[in-house]
Amino acid sequence: MATTEKASAKASPRDRLLDAAARLSYRDGVSVGVEALCRAAGVSKRSMYQLFDSKDAMLAASLERRIPGYEDRLAHPDPGSATPRERILYVFEQLALTSRDADFHGCPYLAVLVELKDPEHPASVVARGVKERLAARLRAEAEQGGARDPELLARQLVLVFDGASARAGAGVERLDDGLVTATVTALLDAGGVH
Question: Whole-number mean pLDDT of the chain?
Answer without folding.
Answer: 94
